[in-house]
Design brief:
The complex is a heterodimer.
Chain A: E1 2-6, H1 10-22, E2 26-30, H2 33-42, E3 47-51, H3 59-68, E4 75-79, H4 84-92, E5 97-100, H5 105-119, E6 126-129, E7 132-135, E8 140-143, E9 146-148, H6 152-163, E10 169-170, H7 171-179, H8 189-201, E11 206-209, E12 213-216
Parallel strand pairs in A: 1-2, 1-3, 3-4, 4-5
Antiparallel strand pairs in A: 6-7, 7-8, 8-9, 10-12, 11-12
Chain B: H1 5-57, H2 67-88, H3 96-99, E1 102-107, E2 121-122, E3 137-142, E4 150-158, E5 163-170, H4 171-191, H5 193-207, H6 209-219, H7 235-286, H8 290-320, E6 328-331, H9 332-342, H10 344-349, E7 353-358, E8 364-367, H11 369-385, E9 392-400, E10 403-409, H12 417-428, H13 437-440, H14 447-459, E11 463-468, E12 475-482
Parallel strand pairs in B: 7-9
Antiparallel strand pairs in B: 1-2, 1-5, 3-4, 4-5, 6-8, 9-10, 10-12, 11-12
The chains are: A alpha/beta, B alpha+beta.
Chain lengths: 224, 486
Amino acid sequence: MHLCLIEDDLALAQALSDGLTAADYRVQQVTRGDAGLHMLQTGAFDLAIVDLGLPGLSGMDLVQRLRQSGSTLPVLMLTARDATQDRISGLDAGADDYLVKPFDFNELLARLRAIHRRVSGTVASVLQSGALRLDLETRQVMQADRKIDLSRREFALLQLLLENAGRVVTRDRLETALYGWLDPVASNALEVHVHHLRKKLGAETIRTMRGVGYLLVNPDASLP
Amino acid sequence: MISSLRTRLLLGLMLALLLALVLVFIVSWQAAKAELASVFDAHLQQSAAIMLLWSQTEPRAGEQLDADKFRAELQSLLPLMTGVYLRRQTVATDDADRRELAYTILCDEPPPAQQSDCLAVASPNAPPLLQTSAAPGFAEQRQDDAAATLWHIYTLRDAERGFTVRVAERDDVRRQLIGSMVWRQYGIMLSLIPLAGLLCWWVIGHGLRPLRQLSAQINARSEDLLEPVATTAPDEVSALVDALNQLLLRLAAAFDRERRFSADVAHELRTPLSVIKTRAELTAARSDDANTASACSEIARQCQRAARVLDQLLQLARIAGMSRQHWQTVDLAALAREVMADLSAPAQARGVELVLEATAHSCSLPGEAVSLSILLRNLLDNAIRHSHHGGEVSVDIRPQGQRLLLSVTDQGTGLSPQQHDQLQRFVQAEESVNVPPELRSDQSGYGLGLRIVQRIAALHAAEVELLTLGQGAGLCVQVSFPGHAA
């Protein structure tokens, strides 16, 4: 797998490069943001790791321009900042995931696998986690080889969970995605949809975090 | 030194007023004395003239001079001569004899040819010196006896009929009269001084009002608000306000530099920590030697710990820059859900279940969202790290009367009563109290996290309370926020 590592700190770049090479990635190192963007737009890469603070062009601007040019390349952003605002704007700019320094190297590998699978390198409109595939264009959901019929709201719910596979999605986000801001939501409406989804996908697929939200169990995330 | 500006001004003003009064008194005392002396002299002169005129009419034509009748009539003239002033004054001695004018009528020796019936007369209080003749006009003379009384004398002479009229007044009586007259005027003035003092007190108080308003305005600020003071103060006070504002601006800039510096340091340290951690992890994974592997894993763990401290430093720096200006209505339950979703991975890694219990409504409060999420993160982080595998950390948010109660409960080891007391003192105390050493260690690691919780709670005027659920049965941290937004 061909990976582009855009990181201005040479020591970190070298350490990551060593580890990634050992994990069977072919790694191309770039230290400047502008050079990195050029490299991503011209080369054939499967994945990119981009540092937030880069000389030449910031990681945020880099990803934004990359997305503007139509690329769907999976991008993992590294940040030395942890302010919630920074993370969110990183994701808004078009990064697929982010990691805060210092991170677990195994966590980095797991995230790389996850975002690669999710975008799957083939069609951008397909979300995938483990055996579960959701096609945004045909609105088809497949579990292994089995086709699953979902209602409109169940589909939206699964889409949001798949986009955040392995991460807890809060009730507030799910309810907003399902009902919008205006409609008053019956207090157990969300539970009902999750209950239906579980019946169709298997009870272990979706885990409850009581009072907080739900997460789609990510088979890629190898938890220590 | 008198500390009250008002008292100082009042004392100064009253002192100046008294000094001015004394000066006025001295000057006008001299003027009044001269003025009154001339009035008394005129009166003396007038009295002599009356006596002379009266003496000239006696005896009437064709009558024989009756000495007894003459004396009696002359004596009855006395009150008239003593005059309005003298009769009205109450001289201290109240001795009518001393108070009244003394007079003598002296006959020429020998009498002129055409006039023979001159009767020499002397008032009962007439001093011996009045018995001797003198040149007409004013004179001051001292009686050379033991009392050495000074007399003001006026002498008139009728050369044609051959007699002299002398009228005299005691100097001490005259002084007493002048004194009492002047004092009567000043008595009124002096009695007005307390009234003037009261007026001054009020005027000063009124004049100092802008200062009081300014200090109230400054007092009403929260400690972290370094915005310039806006005021429409008088010129003298606005100079002070300007100086204060300059200081505030410099302070704010210094604080800002400090904050940015610690934030920069924290950011800068993250990258080298990442390098160390990644290298250690890779070495641990590749090494065949068990000792090397465990040492490298330990290095990686310590990197994580250092990163946590950095996080907390960043958080402290961020809180320090917060003020109530950016407050909004925050849904604490929604905020808790976000933080808990964020922390679900480390919780899962430790085998800890996170649970939120919140009433559907009334979980909002006025506050600052970022700092409140930091508070939640620290409480949850502590709870997760002190939980056993398979334990549960529950967050409970509910209104309680006028307050909003947030509690984070773990099922960990909890605290010994001693530790509990120390930690409770720590969270309730002011900034100066240090973290108890045994709670600062790696094992408990409450220190910085609780410091942050305490600061954010203080920013929201909330109270932090620790409830130990018995030794080994976990800890509950309660944060009670005042006033929730319905």
